[in-house]
Amino acid sequence: MTERQVTAELAAWIVNLGDADIPAEVRTEGVRTFVNWLGCAVGGADHETVDAALRAVMPFSGPRDSTVIGRQERLDPLHAALVNGISSHVLDYDDTHLKTIVHPAGPVASALLALAEHRAMSGTDFLTALIVGVEVECRLANCVYPDHYDRGWHITGTAGVFGAAAACGKVLGLDQQKMQWALGLAATQSAGLREMFGTMTKSFHPGSAAQNGLKAALLAEAGYDSSEKAIEALRGWANVTSTKQDYDEVLGELGSRWESALNSYKPFACGIVIHPTIDGCQQIREEIGPERVAEIERVDLKSHPLVLELTGKRTPRTGLEGKFSVFHSAASALLRGDGAPTAFTDEVVNLPEIVDLRDRIHAETDPDMYEASVRILVTFKDGTTLEKFVERAIGSLERPLSNEQLETKFVNQAKLVVGEEIARSLLGEAWKIESADPAAIARASVPGRQEAAE
User: Fold this and answer.
1) What whole-number distance in Å separates Cα of residue 288 and Cα of residue 59?
2) Name one Pfam family in it (predicted).
3) Cα(451)–Cα(454) distance, rounded to whole angstroms?
4) Mind listing the domains of the chain with CATH numbers?
5) CA distance 105 to 89
6) Considering the entire predicted model, what is its pTM?
């Protein structure tokens, strides 16, 4: 066990970090992170999962200071953080820190934006806090990955609560002791099980992390104490939830190695390990033409065992289950060229032509293959074959989405909820977050409301 005071050192770094200590390129990636998150939050705002969450919590809301992104309803900040975290993740279209498969922005941005309508903060403060929160979340995920994840913890929920607490504590101006308390309060609320993948509860994890992280910061601000060694103590978070504790991943090169700069953005609205398969199948469709897709007799996929472990649902029945079916995703990409949210609806998952092709898709694992690669072999009815190897999918760090692709992704999903005019206006304001009023951006996401963010 380390002799370093991990919680204390991390808290001190959070508290003492200034805006100018964050390199320009890291701040630029922070803006991209916010743009991507906001588009996903608006895009998921009318999902039935969000409807159900609102029916459950609306009767219990306190003063309704905070916007539910993309909707007319308002909630108190804690419940708004919960619901916005749900909507930003429900399409499985949000950002990914590929080293740990954590989705960093959902817990952090959802908590911060809900707080921004209750406690005024500048765009600069918002962006700094967002970057801090993402950095803390990713570093703690690195500390315990992969054992923590392999045990069945959903790392976005378990590490995300620390990111939300750090970000909110930063803008609240907590001192070091109170920041340690906030991290401790976050640690004791860390939760999320991978068993929930393919259900509404998966998106509850980042929502709950946002709500609990904000709660942790507010409690600490009020003087509510906790263990000051909550991360590294024998019965603290890292030792209880994992057999691996690499504290150099938490504290090493703080301020010079930026995990938040390694964020990536999904081009497809499903589990990240399916992306190479969708990418490859879309390339095949483009090469052979839509007409010849009907002549496919069989498709064989070869990938790392993690792909089937996470996305091996052979017969999905709902859109949410389809997001964790490499078989459905391959069929949809081949037949429709689609990997967007429109590929993962209850209707599309059950289309007869999708089901028919899905049943002719077979998958095997190869532990020697890289997790982000796939080999696809298509056999046609005339006996001819076509092979495609995808080493890294679009959206990976090696093939990142451009700003223009992020904008297309934003508008295409957001316009279905709030209309194209609001979607494009909101996108423009999101790019200017550092000089904007975050609260005004939240309010500008409401459909039918033409008020521009100031």
Assistant:
1) 54
2) MmgE_PrpD_C
3) 9
4) 6-262 (1.10.4100.10), 272-390 (3.30.1330.120)
5) 9
6) 0.95
